[in-house]
Write a structure and sequence with these properties.
9 strands; two-stranded antiparallel sheet; 7-stranded mixed sheet; 209 residues; Pathogenesis-related Protein p14a; alpha+beta; CAP_dom; 26% helix
Length: 209
């Protein structure tokens, strides 16, 4: 996994099969998310309903966010890595955005939305899914991770930020609008190569309030 690239996408917005995700990945994702949530923030719990929504979307090999009609008001983080990316790596990419925040304000031109979603005090539950061997982001083989975040514990989700606008989409299977794809493409950059770490990544995020 020494030659991997990562794409990250986050959005906050105001029927279902069980998620196909390994128990070890559930443990890894929950541990990473909760380690990022300092007291007195409540610890997140795993939500199978949110995980099943994530499964529906990731199984389409998406290039952007799902429609609000599928998310049912949940927030969503997405990560793409090629050729593969494990649960620890995608969580690390999201959480390290903390370094872009100064006194709660995101540095100009930086990305903070994935981390802000994870530590949102209104978020109480999370469910994720992953799919390998997807053609996406201009790559023939990627591994995609989708995490959905809800404001209730248990198997239902309510908006964590009902004032944020929904994505432009005409159906539950639509991908993000072309403007988002353009933003993603324009923000590609490289980071130093480290064994076991991504060699580059792209990010696009809506603001979090």
């Amino acid at each position: 996994m020494s030659h991997t690239a990562v794409v990250l996408l986050s959005v906050i917005i105001a029927g279902v099969a069980r998620a196909d995700i390994a128990p070890a990945d559930v443990t890894t994702l929950l541990s990473a998310h909760n380690a990022a949530r300092a007291s007195p923030l409540p610890q997140l719990t795993w939500d199978d309903h949110l995980a099943s929504i994530a499964t529906q979307w990731v199984n389409t090999c998406p290039s952007g966010h799902s429609a609000d009609s599928l998310r049912q008001g949940a927030s969503e983080n997405i990560g793409w890595g090629w050729p593969t990316m494990n649960a620890s790596e995608v969580a690390s990419e999201w959480i390290k955005e903390k370094d872009n925040l100064v006194n709660g304000v995101c540095n100009a031109g930086a990305v903070c939305g994935h981390y802000q979603t994870i530590v949102d005090p209104k978020t109480l539950s999370v469910g994720c899914a992953t799919k390998q061997n997807c053609p996406s982001q201009g790559q023939p083989v990627t591994q995609i991770w989708v995490c959905e975040y809800g404001a209730t514990s248990g198997n239902s989700s309510t908006p964590t930020n009902s004032t944020s606008p929904p994505p432009t989409s005409n159906s539950s299977s639509a991908t993000a609008p072309s403007a988002a794809a353009t933003t993603l493409a324009s923000m590609r950059r490289s980071i130093p190569i480290t064994s076991g770490a991504p060699t580059g990544y792209m990010q696009q995020s809506s603001s979090c309030t």
